Amino acid sequence: MNYQERADALFEDQKSSWPQLGTNWEQLGAARVRKFDFDGFTIQVQYNPKRIVSSTAKVDKESIENRKCFLCTQNRPPEEKNVWFGEDYEILCNPFPIFKEHFTIAKADHTPQEIEHEFLRFLDLSRELPDLVMFYNAPSCGASAPDHMHFQAGNRGFMPLEDDLGVIKQKYGNSLLHLPGLAVTAIEDGLRRFVLLESNERAALNDLFQHLLAFVRELQQGEEPMINMLSYYRAGWQILIFPRDKHRPWQYFEEGEKNILLSPASVDMGGMLITPLEKDFNKITREEIEDIFSQISFSERNFARMIGHLNDKLQSYEV
Question: Other C-beta atoms within 10 Å of 21: how many?
């Protein structure tokens, strides 16, 4: 079997052999969803109480140091099985699923969540698991295990952005480069600011990604650049890179009626907001969604600077 078939078989087996996953997966069938229509695209909100663990994860240095890493082999429950991807990554079933098939793909070694030297493996995984969307959350914008390098993946067709991307690209896209086998588009759709890389050339994608990553790192002067990233593969890659200005919106930290327990990561940037509390699912408004995205997305100024930086790089491709 190929990797996709092996991953599918693993998930089917784990639903029955791992009670925690099986129970949480069954409850997905009762998940409630609200839809908000914007100009040319949709944002959905899912009520998923089991995601409270991820949404409230403490990712500060002290908290991380005082808990066992749940992605390391010795700390996993005995029921949890894996499929090896090469010798360096393990495909695991996520016990708190958002998707009908939801995987965590963890590096075998306990190394920090840093994408720079792992981006090519991200591409490889996406190519070998074409029925899934691959995604990456940086430590400061969604990763609940910032101390252990990992990706996640879920079945395609779940996030609204996948279906909306063609319209969004046409309506809001700024084509920066369009060559046979390589296209770069900057997109500002009124909520999100992101870059879309499309290519069947692995080396070109890595070159452009590293250039973008270096800019965000320099701008933020932090340890690991704040980005979320999605990848779809069909005879070539579509890589969506969402640079972030902020981890969590102010509503996350409020008390009482103003509180909204929403900790946006890649899935949220893909148009599916995950709310673990029913009160938030019921009360969230279109205006609050707009406000939350305006806080966490790259500012207009920073995005313009990033595009200018990227355009300098793209000139070498146009020669």
Answer: 22
